[in-house]
Amino acid sequence: MFRGKIGLNKSMVTIALGVWCLFIFMPILFPHSLLSSLTVIFGKGICKLLCHQEEQKLFHFSGCYSLVCARCSGVYLGAFISSVLIFFVQVNDKKGLLLITASCIMLIDVLLTTFGVYPYQKSIAFFTGIFFGSVIFFYFNNAIHSLKLESKTRKVI
User: Fold this and answer.
1) Does the reported pTM lie above 0.70?
2) Element holding 65 (H helix, E strand)
3) Which sign, positive or negative, has the C-alpha torsion 111, 114, 118, 124?
4) Fewest C-beta atoms under 10 Å: which of 12, 43, 118, 156?
């Protein structure tokens, strides 16, 4: 089901998230390029504010590492995927069950690996991150939409 007109704001958010995802994977996608080297130099400092960047938890290929860990990569990629999906689908979860579920799944994985029940696995961290990031983005989008509607109704009154 298509949701109607594609808004400029939604497109801008989708583009920004896509660029961010490209940025965090730049060292892997374009290894040993000047652009990749510059991304690593400037990106590590920026991403350090958002992620612990433990080397064993980063994606790597041919000696090149992503700028954030597997879980954070999943969160950002999930948000990007959801920013594309909102053009076609609408998710209404008034009770917050999706948010609670996504948060619990990710928290359980973090706790189980932290306490050594099973070893850290990038694939599990990545997929729990994707689920959490996509759900968070849907809530973020719905909140912004609600604020816009509220703002419009206040102007009318």
Assistant:
1) yes
2) strand 64-69
3) positive
4) 156
Between CA 33 and CA 16 the distance in angstroms is 22
* 101-105, Cβ contacts within 8 angstroms, sequence gap of 24 or more: 101/135, 102/128, 102/131, 102/132, 102/134, 102/135, 102/136, 103/132, 105/131, 105/132
Q: What is the mean pLDDT of residues 5-26?
A: 84
Would residue 69 be called left, alpha or beta, if left means φ above 0 and alpha means ψ between -120 and 50 degrees?
Answer: beta
Indicate whether 144 belongs to any domain. yes
- Total count of domains within the chain: 1
Domain assignment present for residue 2? The answer is: no
Measured distance CA(91)–CA(124) in Å, rounded: 24
Give the position of tokens 């998230």: 17
